[in-house]
Amino acid sequence: MRRTLHLERSAFWTETSDPEAWFRALDVLASKPPQVGSPRAVADRALVGVISRRAAMGLFGLVEDLLPGVGLVTRDTEGRWTVSDEAQVLLRRWKQAPARGTELLAAYLVRESVWLRLLLLRLERRDWELHGWSEVRSSRAGLKAGTSLLLHQHAEPARWFEGLELQAAARWLARGHCDALAYAPDVLSRKPSKDNLSLTPLTAPLLLLESVGWLSRTGALTLPNELLADLTGTATPAQALTDLTSGHADVRGFVAAEPVLRELLATFSVSPSDEAFARWMDALVDEASRHGALELLAVEPGQARHGRGLFADPTKRLVRWVVHSEFNETFQNAWRALETRRELTR
Fold first, then answer.
1. 82 - beta bridge partners?
2. For 203-252, what is each residue's pLDDT tens digit?
3. How many CA atoms lie within 13 A of 331 on its CB side?
């Protein structure tokens, strides 16, 4: 049976030059017990005086087949809302070094925001064009379709995602077990003067990209190679492992380390012997952990069918981890443990 993922209108921090508003909201939610109710109810109850309801909506992940935001706040096995593992890492990094935290948030949004991915993909394809960005960035009007954002093709809202559904939303389609993408049923029917479908909220993440050096003051996009590869569909080790982890995780976020890492190698056409795999797995996890490329959040014993644990420890068969972009270099370095000079080509 065909199942459709429904998008809410785009929502980010409403003071466009203040992405830290989201960190402040996450900090408040992280200090509270898990929340129940709809995203709107949670925002009204837990975030009053911290962030506007509209801005808060962008934080939330899936509600059945509805996607209000970017998944920094997700539902646990009991249907309660909690700050996600990756959001907790982002929050911790922001507290340690605010500039680094906002850069990591920018990278997260390039990977996870369906709306931002749509805009960046259309800009990359030159279907759409930023016009007069230097003026937009210094005004309060924000991005406006037809003036500061020229829609050369796919100009009608019904065609914005045409041909880009998978590139823009593949992760969320998989997480929601959906095979089609559409706007939430009432989005296009709302009163234009009150709650219309608009690209203007994307001003906020564009300003964030500019602040970290990925968008010039004239509107030229220069994403880091690994993020550009992710956006355009070219696999990198870090993204491949992130996607495998997301695809195989149980409802608590745990994956069996050995099967996932074997599948990662298979992605790059490598099927080593058991002895070589064990040597490679230990070398990879050791270096990745020491350099912060893999952030290990929790481990559990699992069962024999889950394979060898980390460093052959049967109490560490199941893992919860966060993969960082530094994993690309670590993965390349670990080839020597397989006694191969193979270079990555994808």
1. 74
2. 999 999 999 999 998 899 999 887 888 888 766 788 889 888 987 888 88
3. 25
